Amino acid sequence: MASFSLLSSLLISLTFLFSLSSASPFSLEIHNRFSDRVRHWADSRNHPGVWWPQHGTAEYYAALAHHDRALHQRRSLATTSPQELTFFDGNATYRLSSLGYLYYAFVELGTPNVTFFVALDTGSDLFWVPCDCKQCAALSSPSYGVNFAFNTYSPSNSNTSETISCGSSSCEQVQSTCSGSNANCTYSISYVSDNTSSSGYLVEDVLYLTTETTQPQTTQASIIFGCGQTQTGTFLDGGAPDGLMGLSMSNLSVPSILANKGYTSNSFSMCFSEDGIGRINFGDVGSSDQSETPLLVDTQADLYNISLTGFSVGNSSYTSSFSAIVDSGTSFTYLADPMYTDIVTSFTSQVEETRGSELSAAASFEYCYLLSSGQTSAKIPDIAFTTQGGSSFPVNNALLTVVSAAGNTIGYCLAIGKSSGLNIIGENFLTGLRVVFDRERLVLGWQNFNCYDSSAPGPALAPNGYNPKKTNQVSVLENSSPHLTAMSSLVLLFVVTMLLM
User: Fold this and answer.
1) Which residue among the candidates 121, 205, 284, 302 is catalytic per the annotation?
2) Percentage of the chain modeled with pLDDT above 90
3) Catalytic site includes residue 121
4) What topology is assigned to 58-264 in CATH?
5) Domain 291-497 top-level CATH class
6) Radius of gyration for the alpha carbons in the chain, expressed in angstroms and rounded
7) For residue 459, is the peptide bond before it cis, meaning its omega torsion is within 30 degrees of 0?
8) pLDDT for 4 beyond 50
9) What are the structural domain ranges in the chain?
10) Which of 72, 100, 219, 473 is in the most buried spot, having the most CB atoms within 10 Å?
């Protein structure tokens, strides 16, 4: 790996492009130093000693994580109040195609601290990591699409670890098969994906967090999590191989523990960007100008349910009352009839492209459309939900671009699956939004947002000029969709249909 010279580093860190605008006589566009725009700029000028990782590779995400860690030593990533906390390695989250299209974050556990790369799932209760493994995913694998090795946790290697016993009040919150009050409190969780589960026992140890102020303060939060000895199903095949953090409303979830122990307020936010770089902040209560809808409390399930009163597709509107789960742990969105049929039928009637059955068979989505030879763009109707209270929930990213084995864009799919009864607003419908899970007021908040500057709402300039409010036209140039940048053939589309809750 070539190293940066001081001059080259300064030259490519920020590129300033000036343009005239009718709204303002002066505008400034700032590009991430790893962006394609800066890469092309540097290549055209033959700057010596310049190296940076390819977008979407493991080195790319590792470089960004390292940047976040260094940034914490100097200044804040966002303008936040002192009670907000995020992970010690930074509040950046990363969506990886090779790991189930879920969002991941680096977290630090134990004493001495060990780093884990865990999936973030608002549809799950318990936080667990591979631990004293009997059956865990491999620490490294070419199929992961990342080059760094994962870690495992062992209570015996941490000076601050305590095993939760069956007699503990915390054990009452899991369906444990305890054999005695002094025995280890065991857990076993089954997920929606076929034969996917995690089992082991509960432990308590420190999770390292930090404030995002100009003078960051480290917090060692004592939390309960699962020592995951045995994993099955998709957890062995690249889905959360280094652990999963449950973010639901359950008392055992990390946000609940942090709030109950007074570390933060009882709310958190997640930002979902177009290019797969997001943010997570515990204690974030949102802003006064965000849209909101009440959360539906279900005593049988600790999920983030909202009530919807209708939806629109382009110039067509529908009135329909139904509830849906907002779930960051589900890659795509799933709807039951009549909502599913109404949306896909209206969508098809408003696009000019014809349906392609061969694309649907490969991509596992029913409604896919072929591009004509030489076509580079397509007009796509907006999709939005109407929530209880009247707020509109925009859908900024409803499509999946399809490329051939040769790397040419040949079509796109409406990335909605048909459900037999459960409605799930998955991660793809959350793109372009900062979503606030306010469990104190029992509301879900959202706002078009630029995750690269989480102190300022969208529309804002981000790498590649992403504008979260511009949804009426989609570019289908080769590799234009982050969903397919790491894929080279239609066959590989089968791997993105994994469902985790």
Assistant:
1) 121
2) 51
3) yes
4) Cathepsin D, subunit A; domain 1 (2.40.70)
5) mainly beta
6) 23
7) yes
8) no
9) 6-45, 58-264, 291-497
10) 100
